[in-house]
Design brief:
Strand content: 25-35%
Order of helices and strands: HHEEEEHEEEE
Number of domains: 1
CATH architecture: Beta Complex
Radius of gyration: 14 Å
Structural class: alpha+beta
CATH topology: Beta-clip-like
Shape: globular
Length: about 120
């Protein structure tokens, strides 16, 4: 079973329900914040993803993923990986992305969606 299908099963949702939720979130809770750390491009993982504009050092702030209930491109376009190079950490009402390791220029930025620090 693919990790994506496992994610759907774990959350007891269908792919269409996930698509509908993402469309709703994009329409009502998306803030397009420009970044000097990453850019959006086609991903080999899934659809579009975010890629490092320059080398990012381990521990560096990659950006804000969520401001209160509003998602930014970092939350919307960071793809899932079992081997993430960033993690999202809740800071008060916001969520911030930090580099778990050095990320090279043009490397895709990926996060583990099952990360326990967000719960």
């Amino acid at each position: 079973m693919s990790d994506f299908k496992l994610y759907l099963e774990e959350n007891k949702i269908s792919e269409q329900q996930l698509i509908d939720w993402m469309t709703y979130m994009d329409n009502y809770y998306y803030i397009d914040i420009p970044s000097d750390v990453y850019y959006k491009s086609n991903s080999n993982i899934h659809g579009e993803g975010l890629f490092a504009l320059t080398d990012i050092e381990k521990g560096a702030v990659v950006g804000v993923a969520s401001i209160k209930d509003n998602r930014t491109p970092l939350a919307r376009y960071t793809n899932h990986s079992k081997n993430p190079n960033i993690e999202f950490i809740k800071v008060n009402e916001d969520v911030v992305g930090y580099a778990l390791e050095d990320i090279l220029k043009d490397e895709e930025i990926v996060v583990d969606y099952r990360h326990p620090k967000l719960k």
